[in-house]
């Protein structure tokens, strides 16, 4: 190890030794002093304020601060040797059993009752008791009351606040803490990237102070100030990136597509069989104004399931066709693309029959381009698109392939944008001579801070009203393990709906035998729970059992495209009573006669996913019913999540709950690039005000220095926190 001054770029092997540096690199992806000082504690334990052991979940990797209560040695039953059982407690009634196999008398002497320590491992359960098997641990001195200072050899825990780091089994938190102490002893912080005016105006501490205090806080107040500064850096970096993108995009040229009085759009509005909601009209006015400008529209249209986004998008597409251009809609699945195609043909009628008998005067053509088109049909469709006769083009990612050329692509509509990778969306945009206008649609409600942070370079429109005639959806949790009779009643309830002339969905988390699909959760978790229920296994059991005699169809992502379409069409036409499916029905599938959905293993789905799924029922005049079947125990976090879904149909409330339960990095695109998220402290849920303030500062700074030329340290910091891949994700999302 060295005592020379270190910087953010100093390799860790020069500071903590080759062996430890190798472990930090291989297990935690930490290579330099900068990586380590930006590896912030997950939380802080405090002597006298102990971890609530009772709140730990089985399967969780934990580090707890606890006191040894008693030890016991007993012979093992299956093999020779003894088993050491150590009971530790947190002072509030919660206890954990630590188990050590083999003859380890020295450990029994070390783990004396009364001693405090940090204990790290995976929580398991044995005969109703929670335990850690062979945990790593670090004892904190020889005190029985937990208040005395730690011994010299573990001085990194001398403070009242003990940092607990994101760790690995091979690199526990106390090893990280020791390495941080070594690095901080010689560390020269980087030049503060935040402009002095922003620091002073927002009362933020300097970067050197923040980095020291977050690891070795001198008080709770100083820790709060350090965290606030470092959160600010993260929020400011993201907002600067987005504001810069928006600033640049505002100067791009695009062909204006103004409304045409007496054109296709007016004819379409005149033949619509229902009134547009006030929300649809207002959003339509916003989009129409955007399309008429000489700069590309970048607008996010969010609306609850069934709020009428598709009609809004179709009206925008018709405005572009009226102005001589073409519009393309990119759907995530062939099932949804085909459904959009049929739905738009029905709505447009003679307006989509250009070149056919009975066509309207200003008619256009609507083409469907998917991977399953036959060679002749594909050639015909591509010719219609390339020569501009098809004003509206619908498809899956097949639209992105070479050979699909547009005469004049003026508008790209992306349906359910979160299903597409950045590169796919960009490939479709690149098919236009100039940047086309872009409308991104999502039925997943987005909390305000997520919209501000992930979609900060898009204007946002929201549809909150449901069209007239839409029916309410009732949702209930069915606790199958505790009350099997409730599950029997669920199947009888489904049969009653079918007897009344309606249809039903049964949704399973898994397809069945064969390789794992992207639409499936893991087959079984580390805690040994049974694999999730599968469509191909459940369907025959239902046909022979509780749903005997009903017409049952099966739908999942691995079926050939023509078979998927045939099943979906058969269900839509009323030739099937029950559709047993995976989440392939989550998005856009519209069968107004379907009134009941039973979701099996509902705890295996996310909150927003369940909300999307239940939006498939109650789309007609009859009320919808969604039954969430689960074996999750009452009081468990999974059960509480399902109770929350059942208690409200407010998608925005559920989106906030969903956000609470997801890693922030997922929201911010870390999983898109496969890299570790550099946004470690910022919470989109809890830091709304800070994010709003950072955006205001970012707008002011970019207006006076668009490329941050006068702030090179800040530009470098932004590049480090929001790397190029993530910046592209934010831009194109």
UniProtKB/TrEMBL annotation:
GO molecular function per UniProt: ATP binding; DNA binding; DNA helicase activity; hydrolase activity
PANTHER family membership: ATP-DEPENDENT DNA HELICASE HOMOLOG RECG, CHLOROPLASTIC (PTHR47964:SF1)
GO biological process entries: DNA repair
Name of a matching Pfam family: Helicase_C
Domain of life: Bacteria
Key word Zinc present: no
Domain Helicase ATP-binding as annotated: residue spans: 290-463
Keyword tags: ATP-binding, DNA damage, DNA repair, DNA-binding, Helicase, Hydrolase, Nucleotide-binding
Naturally occurring in which organism (per UniProt): Micromonospora palomenae
Region annotation Disordered: where it falls in the sequence: 509-531
Protein name in the entry: Probable DNA 3'-5' helicase RecG
Domain Helicase C-terminal, chain residue ranges per copy: 486-660
């Amino acid at each position: 190890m060295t005592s020379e001054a270190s910087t953010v770029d100093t390799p860790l092997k020069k500071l903590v030794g080759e062996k430890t540096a190798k472990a930090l690199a291989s297990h935690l992806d930490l290579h330099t002093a900068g990586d380590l000082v930006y590896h912030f504690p997950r939380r802080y334990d405090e002597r006298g304020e102990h971890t609530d052991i009772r709140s730990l979940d089985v399967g969780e990797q934990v580090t707890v601060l606890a006191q040894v209560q008693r030890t016991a040695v007993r012979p093992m039953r299956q093999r020779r040797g003894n088993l050491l059982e150590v009971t530790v407690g947190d002072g509030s009634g919660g206890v954990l059993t630590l188990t050590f196999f083999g003859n380890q008398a020295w450990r029994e002497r070390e783990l004396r009752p009364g001693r405090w320590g940090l204990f790290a491992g995976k929580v398991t359960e044995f005969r109703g008791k929670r335990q850690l098997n062979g945990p790593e641990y670090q004892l904190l001195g020889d005190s029985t009351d937990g208040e005395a200072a730690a011994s010299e050899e573990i001085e990194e825990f001398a403070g009242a606040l003990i940092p607990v780091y994101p760790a690995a089994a091979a690199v526990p938190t106390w090893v990280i803490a020791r390495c941080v102490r070594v690095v901080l002893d010689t560390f020269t912080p980087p030049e503060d990237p935040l402009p002095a005016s922003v620091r002073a105006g927002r009362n933020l501490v300097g970067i050197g102070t923040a980095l020291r205090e977050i690891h070795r806080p001198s008080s709770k107040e100083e820790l709060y100030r350090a965290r606030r500064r470092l959160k600010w850096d993260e929020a400011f970096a993201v907002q600067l990136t987005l504001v810069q993108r928006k600033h640049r995009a505002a100067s791009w040229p695009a062909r204006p597509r103004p409304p045409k009085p007496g054109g296709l759009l007016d004819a379409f509005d005149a033949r619509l069989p229902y009134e547009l909601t006030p929300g649809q009209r207002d959003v339509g006015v916003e989009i129409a104004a955007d399309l008429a400008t000489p700069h590309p529209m970048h607008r996010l249209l969010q609306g609850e399931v069934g709020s009428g986004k598709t009609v809004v998008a179709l009206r925008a597409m018709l405005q572009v066709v009226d102005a001589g251009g073409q519009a393309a809609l990119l759907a995530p699945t062939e099932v949804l693309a085909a459904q959009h195609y049929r739905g738009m043909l029905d709505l447009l009628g003679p307006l989509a029959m250009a070149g056919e008998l009975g066509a309207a005067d200003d008619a256009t053509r609507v083409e469907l381009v998917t991977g399953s088109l036959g060679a002749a049909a594909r050639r015909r469709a591509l010719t219609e698109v390339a020569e501009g006769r098809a004003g509206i083009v619908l498809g899956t990612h097949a639209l992105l392939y070479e050979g699909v050329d547009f005469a004049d692509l003026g508008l790209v509509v992306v349906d359910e944008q979160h299903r597409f990778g950045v590169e796919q969306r960009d490939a479709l945009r690149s098919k236009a001579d100039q940047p086309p206008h872009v409308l991104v649609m999502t039925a997943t409600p987005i909390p305000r801070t997520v919209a501000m942070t992930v979609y900060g370079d898009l204007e946002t429109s929201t549809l909150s009203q449901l069209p007239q005639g839409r029916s309410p959806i009732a949702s209930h949790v069915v606790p199958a393990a505790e009350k099997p009779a409730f599950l029997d009643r669920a199947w009888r309830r489904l049969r009653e709906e079918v007897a009344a002339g309606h249809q039903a969905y049964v949704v399973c988390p898994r397809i069945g035998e064969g390789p794992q699909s992207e639409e499936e959760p893991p087959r079984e978790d580390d805690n040994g729970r049974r694999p999730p229920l599968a469509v191909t296994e459940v369907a025959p059991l239902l046909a022979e059992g509780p749903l005997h005699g009903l017409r049952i169809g099966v739908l999942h992502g691995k079926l050939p495209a023509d078979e998927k379409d045939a099943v979906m069409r058969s269900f839509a036409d009323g030739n099937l009573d029950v559709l047993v499916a995976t989440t392939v029905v989550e998005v856009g599938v519209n069968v107004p006669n379907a009134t009941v959905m039973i979701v099996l293993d509902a705890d295996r789905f996310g909150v927003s996913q369940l909300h999307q799924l239940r939006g498939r029922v109650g789309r007609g005049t009859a009320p919808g019913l969604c039954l969430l079947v689960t074996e999750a125990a009452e009081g468990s976090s999974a059960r509480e999540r399902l109770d929350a879904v059942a208690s409200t149909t407010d998608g925005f409330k559920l989106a906030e709950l969903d956000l609470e339960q997801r890693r922030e990095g997922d929201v911010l695109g870390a999983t898109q690039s496969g890299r570790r998220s550099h946004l470690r402290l910022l919470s989109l849920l809890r830091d709304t005000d800070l994010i709003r303030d950072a955006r205001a500062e970012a707008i002011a700074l970019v207006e006076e220095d668009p490329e941050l030329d006068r702030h090179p340290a800040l530009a470098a910091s932004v590049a480090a926190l929001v790397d190029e891949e993530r910046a592209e994700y934010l831009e194109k999302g």
